[in-house]
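Practice set, problem 2.
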Amino acid sequence: MQKTSGIHHITAMVNDAQRNIDFYAGVLGLRLVKKTINYDRPEVYHLYFANESGDPGTVITFFPWGNQLKGRIGTGQVGVTSYVIPTGSLPFWKERLKRFGVRFIHNVRYGEDYLQFQDPDGLELELVERNNGPVNTWSFGGVTPDVAIKGFGGATLISAQPHKTAGVLEEILGLENIGQEESFLRFKSEAEIGNTIDIKLTPSVRGLMGAGTVHHIAWRAKDEEEHKRWRDLLVEKGYYPTEILDRNYFKALYFHEGGGILFEIATDPPGFSIDEPISELGEKLMLPSWLESKREEFEEMLPKVEARVLKGDKE
């Protein structure tokens, strides 16, 4: 049985592009690794934040669109996105969140300490200390590699039918069920990061798509050959996946699992340096070849945005 090594990326909906960059780059210290457009709605940015080189398992992406309504986190969605930070860095992050006016609470799950908070659009996030995972060598503002977010710790899924979601994680994606604690069922993959998935077992309201909610969660396929095998398996099991789509930086397919959550499977290659050097990632608008002829139109239409050091790091 082939197994995913974990989360490839998570994609969410927000309202304001610059506010989004200020939080994920300015406050959390992630690198803006790609500034492109939503291929399905080219009047909307598609922003990618990750570690220095944009490795799978570290990438969160956003569709910032000012006109979309506020969403509601609930069933059929990723409820919480978890990030891994280096062991011993929790005091730094408590102080940093306080300095930037981000309210947080402390929680314990499976013997681990979590700082839980929201981004400006209401997306639920948490930080957890773990030894696993390579150091993120990116420095930005007041965030240096010794305390920088390494990548995803995992995610909490809110399923309309938890047993069906558990079945997909275990029987299709190859994650291991490591047990239940109170109202959470935990699964793990073999990767060092993006490897811990909790399913919330208590009832929740029905999720509504919109700003402040996760659009989909993507799982890693090591190459195109494995990707095609997964599509064949999904068809065989009756999940009706999409055709394989070219997202320029990876190949993608999508399907809804039995609990209503939109899952994607994405290839690790080719990665974000396919169209610009790693040293220049995220600095300018990047367009796929089939839209390059419309560059002037997009640059005129899209708001001017940038990753910038915030006032709290300049004082």
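Problem 2, part (b): a different protein.
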Amino acid sequence: MKALPNILTSLRLILALFMFVALATAAGGAPWLSERLTMEDQFALQRWAFWAFVIAATTDWFDGWLARKFDAVTVWGAILDPIGDKVLVCGAILGLMSLGPQPMVFLPAGLILFREFTVSALREVGAGKGVKLPVTLLAKWKTALQLTALGAELLVASWGAFGLPMTPETLGPVTLVAHGLFWLAAVVTVITGAQYWEQTRKALAE
């Protein structure tokens, strides 16, 4: 049982890769394959990608809970977990962008990507100088908010693939909620990025 948390984290990485490839292929990003797909094939890929994301996002909670419950916190798990989160978030954003123009979410998407890569660089530079950046409570909520918002955005982008009614009365409110969550996630993401930046600056100054 102690190996289960790391297995779930590894599964998250695999599902994130599958999700991105499925979305990119459905959007025509694989010419040698996409041109052979029917509309129903493209819709099926979008549905599989959405459920892969949902399952992967769920493992983000379970792997940490299991690690604490069975006292199975390992160095390898501590390394893989944040990598899995970032790969899943970045893969979902890039996959979402591949589905077509996203005028309402391209800016928050860019902010989230910029923050994730910047903080990763800060951690790498800080580690080389003996500076550690512990994960804050707000950063944990940030990840949960990102995953919830991205799940909502992927559902909206794949709305037709699920055969759901495309009427403004149905799709409009869901789209509004999804965009609102995504913008909120971007704001919290930027705030946590600024906090990590300030922590690193102070630590290096000392």
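Answer key, part (b): The chain has one domain: 4-205. Residues 168-205 form the longest helix (38 residues).
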